[in-house]
C-alpha cells in the first residue's frame, strides 16, 4: 500500500510526509494525545481509555481495588457503582478490616451466667463482662450466691449474706448446715420439764451462721 493521502502526502517516490497527528511509513497510524497514559487513539490526538481508566489522559483508575485500600489478608470487591467493600478474614472487622475483633465479636460472648460483653473505651479489641447480680469474675464465672445450691440439709432454709450464709434449721436438726440431729432428751439443758420425765413444747428452731 502507498501513502495515505488523507493523513499525509507523497513527498517523493517511496517517501510519505505525515500530517500532524499521524505517523508511520504510510501515515496510517494515529498519534495519541500527549500525556495519554492508559489509552490509545483511532484518530489523531485522541485518548481513548482502556477498560477501568477514565479522565482526559486516562490516568484515573476506576478499579478502586487496584490501589489496595483493604488491609492485609482482606479481599477487596468492587461493587460496580464506583465503590468497593472489604471482605474481612476471620478475626478482623472495620471498613478496611483493620480492626482486630475483641472477645465480644469473636465467635460468641465469653461471659457466663448471663453476663453482658461490652467493648472497653469503645474499642472492639478490648472487652469486659458486666455481671448480673450474684456473679463476679472476669467472665462472671464466680457464683456469689452462697445459697445456690442450697447448703442447708434436711429442709433447712438458707439466707445469703454475700460471702456468708445462714441456715435456719427445722425439725429435729441443728448444726452449721442442719446436719446434726437435735437432742430432745428431757435431760438436756434446753428441755422444758413439766412433771417427772416429760417434755412440753415444739422442737426449737436454731439459727447457725456460717462464714465461707
From TrEMBL:
**Which GO MF terms are attached to this record?**
calcium ion binding
Q: Which GO terms describe its cellular component?
A: cytoplasm; membrane
Pfam families the UniProt entry points to:
EGF (PF00008), EGF_DL_JAG (PF21700), EGF_laminin (PF00053), hEGF (PF12661)
SMART domains, per database record: EGF, EGF_CA
The alphabetical list of record keywords is:
Cytoplasm, Disulfide bond, EGF-like domain, Glycoprotein, Membrane, Repeat, Signal, Transmembrane, Transmembrane helix
Question: What sequence ranges are listed for the domain EGF-like?
Answer: 61-98, 100-141, 143-179
Subcellular localization(s) per the UniProt record? Cytoplasm; Membrane
Name of the protein in question:
Protein delta homolog 1
